[in-house]
Input
Amino acid sequence: MKAKPLSKLKSSARTKQGVWELRLYVAGQTPKSIAAFANLKKICGEHLEAKYHIEIVDLLKNPHLAAGDQILAIPTLVRKLPPPLRKIIGDLSDTARVLVGLDLRPKS
Amino acid sequence: MPKGKANALYPELPKTPTGIQGFDDISGGGLPKGRPTLLCGGAGCGKTILAMEFLVQGARQFNEPGVFMAFEETEGELEKNFSSLGFDIKGLIASKRLHVEHIYVERSEIESTGEYDLDGLFIRIGHAVDSIGAKRIVLDTLESLFAGLPNPLILRAELRRLFRWLKDKGLTAVITAEKGDGTLTRHGLEEYVADCVIMLDHRVSDQVSTRRLRVVKYRGSSHGTNEFPFLIDRRGVSVLPITSLGLKYATTTERVSTGIPRLDSMLGGKGYYVGSSVLVSGTAGTGKTSIASAFVNAACLRREKCLFFSFEESGSQIIRNMRSVGIDLGPWIDKGLLQIHSERPTIFGLEAHLAELHLAIHDFKPKVVVLDPISNLESIGLEADVKAMLTRLIDLLKMNRITGLFTSLTPPGQSLEKTEVGISSVADTWLLLRDIELSGERNRAMYILKSRGMAHSNQVREFVLSDKGIDLVDVYVGSAGVLTGSARASQEAQESVLERQLQFETEQKRLELESKRKLLGSQIAALQARFKSEERAVLHLVKQEKKRQNDIASGRREMARRRQADKYEKRREE
Output
C-alpha cells in the first residue's frame, strides 16, 4: 500500500464492455483505508480476474468529490459499473458480504 | 434583543441571536454560541422551518453565513418550500451566504462489510463550512443516519465525535431530531447534545392545532421555561412570548374621540385613551358593531388608518348595514384609510388568526384595530387559549400604540358582565350594552362599566340608533322608575301636558285676581264719589244753617235795638 499511489491504480488498462469500474473513497491513509484497499484488491483478483478498474479517491485531498457519490462513511466502495450503483461501506473485511454487495454472489 | 445584557459580575454565556421574532426574548439572547443545540419534536411541528430561519436570519441580519445539511429533502425541494415563506434560498446560495447540501442515505443501496467511520460526512461538512466561511450550521435530521447506516454502535461513537468536532470548529449548530416515544428524541441524541434542548410541539385540541415551543434545557443560561405558542406564517416563524413581553409599554394621556359626542362627554369629555383597549360587550342586537363603526368613522375622519376584522359579516355587508345608521365607511376604503378583513373564525386555528392579525397590522400599520366580535373565536379554542391569544394581541397593539376595540357577544341568560372569553380584565375601557324590555318594546341602554384612568359618567344612557346616526339620550328617571324608548317619550309627553295644564290654571288665577282688583277699584271709586256728593251736601247744609243763625242773630239784635235792650245783652252778643 505504501508503495503505491493512492490516486489511481490500474489493474487493467483496458476499458471495454464488461469491465468493472470501482471507486474506493478514503480519507487519508488510515488503517481502515489501507485494510479496505488490500481486501478489495484481493477480492477483485480472485473474482473478477483482470476485468476491473479501481479508482481511489482521497477525500482529504479532494473533499468536493464526497457530495457527488453521497459519501458519508469511510471507507466506501462504489460500484459505478455495471449498473445499478452499489455502495459498500466498511473495511471490506467480510468477504462474503462484499461479494453480496458487489452482486458477485446471491444473498444466501 | 437583550444582546449585551451580560451581568458585570457573572458574565453570561455568549449567545448567537437567531433573529427569529420572539425567540431571542425567551432564550435570553439566542442559542449558545459555538455549541450544538438540539431541536426536537414530532412530524410536521416546524423543525426544519425553524432551523432554516435560523440560518436565513443569520445571513440576512447578522452577516453570519450558514450551512444546511439536509438529510431528508433535496436542495430544490427546500428552495421551493421556503420561497413560500419569503426566504430566497437561491439568492442566498448565489451570494455565498448559505450553503445547502442534500445528504442521501439509502439503506438498500448500502452493504456493510466491516468497520467504518463517518469521515466522509465530516469532510463534507468541513468542506461546506469552509467554502462560505460558515458560522452556523443545521443538520436536519441527523437521525436519518440511524435508518440508513448499519451498526448503531459505531454510529453513536461517530456522532459523539461529530458534536465534539462541531464544538471545536466553533460552529453554532442546530441539530433536529424526531421526537421519540417517551423520550426527547427517537435515538437518544439528547445524550450527546446537552447544551441546549428546544422542544417543538404541535397539539390538536378541539380540531384546532397549535404549535408550541419550549426551551427544555439551556446549560449556563436562564431561559423562559414555559411553553410558548409559535406561528409559521408568510414571514417565517414567530414565537409569541406572553410572559416575556411583559407590561413594559409606554402609556400616553392622548385621547381620541369615540365618534359619538355624548359618549365622549361620558368619558370625561375626551373619549378613549390612545393605545388603550376598549371592550364593548352586550347581548345580540344591542349595537356593538355600530359603536365600533362610529369609532372607525371618527378615526378615518382624523385621517388615521383603521383595520376592521370581522368574524361575522363581510365587508360589504358591514358597509351596507352601517349606512342605515348614518355611517358611510365605503369612501374610507376607497381612500385607503380602512381595511376590512372578513374571515370565519373556523377557517383556521387561533394561532393562525393571530398570525393574520400580526401580518395585517405589520403591513397596514393602523392606528385603530377593531375585532368584531371576539366571542366568535371561542368556537375554535378553549377560553384560556382565546384569552391568551387576545392578551398577546393586546400587548402587540399597546406596544405599537394602537387603540383596539373589541366587541363581545354576551349570550342571553348569562350574567351581563361575563364576557365569553374573559378578557374583561385586560380591557381598559368597558362599555356595556344591554336591552331593556318594557311595555312591549325593547330599547338599548348603555353604560360605562369601567374606564381606567379617567373620570367617567356612572349614568345609564339610552342608546338610540337612527338614520341620522348614533345618539345617547338621557333615560327618564322619575317617579315611575327608569323609562326608555316610547315609554320615556309618552311619559315625557304626559308630563308636558300636565305642565301646560298647570300653566293654564295659574294664568287663569292671575286673570281672576286682576279682575277682582279692577272690580274693587271701581267700587272704591263709586264710594268715593258718593262720599264726595254727601260731603258737599252736608257742607252746604252747614253753610245754610250758619247763615240762618246769622240771620236770626241779626234779627234779634234789630228787635233788641227796637225794644231798647240793656247792654248786658249786647255784651253777651259780642
